[in-house]
Amino acid sequence: MSVRLTRRMVLAAAAAFGLTAAALPGGAATAAEPIKIGTFLAVTGPASFLGDPELKTLQMYIDSMNAEGGVLGRPLELVHYDTGGDPNKAVTFVKRLIDQDEVDVIIGGTSSGESLAVMPLMERAEMPFISFAGSKKIVDPVQKWVFKTPHTDTMACEKIFEDMKAQGTTKIAMISGTDGFGASMQAECKGVAGKYGIEILADETYGPKDTDMTAQLTKIKNTDGVQAVLNPGFGQGPAIVTKNYRQLQIAAPLYQSHGVASKQFIELAGDAAEGVRLPAAALLVAEKLPDSDPQKPVVVAYKQAYEGKHGAGSVSTFGGHAYDGLMLITDAMKRAGSTDKAAVRDALEQTKGYMGTGGEVTFSAADHLGLTLDAFRMLEIKNGDWALIQ
User: Fold this and answer.
1) Is the bond leading into 141 cis (omega within 30 degrees of zero)?
2) Angle at 134 between CA 170 and CA 253, to 5 degrees
3) pTM for the structure as a whole
4) Residue of 319, 359, 363, 320 whose CA lies nearest to 345
5) Same domain, yes or no, for 2 and 119?
């Protein structure tokens, strides 16, 4: 039977014989032991267009940071597992990251379902965790060790309803995905609709593996009084909804969520995407922001760096979530002066005025998101590209 010796076990054994870390095989190299950043992302599967840019972003910026000397004089090491978007795999991989890989922190969780599934593990391990997923439930109620970078689904509902109200829309229909993100946003939108004078006349759903939503959309089309339709969802589902929507020639405006804030959505939906409105981070319209916008230098720099490596038009807000997560956690390490988990968590919670791709972040003990509604921009798809409407 083989026994796997972890570094902690080796150091403990060395201590028993009065040896220092520098006296172990490898000598002084152990003084620059890597800081291990654990991550679990949906690089394959239906959420791959979210997870793929997230992984590419982490790899790109960790390489860049290491070229400049790393963090705290130590190189960063990315330890990654591909979940395919499966919450059960996420749990398995996070256990491995904690128990076997002995990572210092974990960032990631492409989908809400994955992030929500692993949160109890992070709390028990008392390890800082920054999620890249959208559900409000990730940070409400606040968990001591859990933070997140994307705007919440509740904020998306409110931004959309603000725009609808400005258009004089009061009666809508919803068609939502039954995945973790879609179901969460559906519930949040229903919860805040009344605040904006919005009445939901029809409420349909579809599954993650559904390939045609014509039946649900036909019911919506036949519902009297519908002035607009909202589709909470991510992955390929919203693109199918958009295509079916145009095939049925539904005249009411179609709103999507920030879950489709990627050029790939436009490519999947094709011409049917024309006129679709959605809330998203400023990153998608980086160069179109006025020069007076304090976020412009950040989003333009990230966009140029990412597209310089991965091709024009490839940037997405999802890669931006990963960028913000990595920068927030490494900044916390620098301010803590160590990788001690409690110290990093405390420094993270004390973050104030960080300007990222998602907006300006100020965390507190009562707020582990740190963004306001102003961080969202309202966009419309015009001529196959994003247009800023507010």
Assistant:
1) yes
2) 30
3) 0.84
4) 363
5) no
3-class state of residue 73 by DSSP: coil
Domain containing residue 345: CATH number: 3.40.50.2300
Say if residue 239 is in the same domain as residue 171. yes
Residue 386 lies in a domain: no
- Cα 151 to Cα 317: distance, rounded to the nearest angstrom: 11
Residue 8 and residue 101 in one domain: no
Phi first, then psi: give them for residue 53, nearest 5 degrees: -65, -25
The DSSP code sequence of 29-67 is: GGGGPPEEEEEEE--SSTTHHHHHHHHHHHHHHHHHHHH
Distance, in Å, from the CA atom of 377 to the CA atom of 117, rounded to the nearest integer, reads 29
What are 201-210's pLDDT values in tens digits? 999 999 989 9
* 45 and 126 fall within a common domain: yes
Q: How many CA atoms lie within 13 A of 66 on its CB side?
A: 16
Give the H/E segment covering residue 354. strand 354-355
Gap between the Cα atoms of 116 and 13, Å rounded: 37
> 212-263 pLDDT, tens per residue?
999 999 999 999 999 999 999 988 999 999 999 999 999 999 999 998 988 8
- Judge whether 380 lies within some domain: no
Q: Is 119 domain-assigned? A: yes
Q: Are residues 220 and 142 in the same domain?
A: no
pLDDT of res. 259: 87
Residue 159 phi, psi (nearest 5): -65, -40
Claim to verify: residue 245 and residue 196 sit in the same structural domain: yes
Task: Give me 311's structure tokens.
Answer: 């091709």
What is the domain range of residue 350?
34-151+313-375
Q: Please report, as a single letter, which amino acid is at residue 291.
A: D
Q: How many CB atoms are located within 10 Å of the residue 97 CB?
A: 26
Closest to 182 (Cα-Cα) out of 134, 150, 148: 134
- Length of the chain equals 390
Read off the pLDDT of each residue in 145-154 and give the average, rounded to a whole number. Answer: 95
- Domain total of the chain: 3
pLDDT digits (tens, 9 = 90+) for 331-380: 999 999 999 999 999 999 999 999 999 999 999 999 999 999 999 999 99
Residue 303 within any structural domain of the chain:
no
Residue-level pLDDT at 343: 98
